[in-house]
Amino acid sequence: MAMKSIQVFVLLVLLFSASIAVASEAAAPGPDDYDDVPAEEVLECLKPLGEVNDCINDVFKSFMMPDQFGVSAECCGAVAKVVDGCWPKIIISKTEPEFVVRLKAFCNSLNA
């Protein structure tokens, strides 16, 4: 009986792992998800974030872990300076379309 339980457990773990692998491949951005945005435009868009120590890193960490924003008030000031048209050049909004909205809401809550 214990052997059967172990086999069922292993099977469930394998199925779960396979489903995660398939889901992450489907959600991962591919070459077609990136527009042909010149590097100069991306750098110009990143400029406000780059003026604050670790801000670019903190924004991207927040993008990767959306339930744990780790952006300082100073970085939020830089986020407010990024032109709305720049966000799709900085972050692939197709994978997380509400990220910028949630980031700005988080920053607004820091200022409240």
TrEMBL record:
Keywords: Signal. GO terms for biological process: double fertilization forming a zygote and endosperm; regulation of double fertilization forming a zygote and endosperm; regulation of protein localization to cell surface. The lineage of its organism: Eukaryota, Viridiplantae, Streptophyta, Embryophyta, Tracheophyta. Residues 44-107 form the Prolamin-like domain. The keyword Signal applies. GO terms for cellular component: extracellular region; vesicle. The keyword Signal applies. Pfam families: Prolamin_like (PF05617). This is Prolamin-like domain-containing protein. Residues 1-23 form the signal peptide.
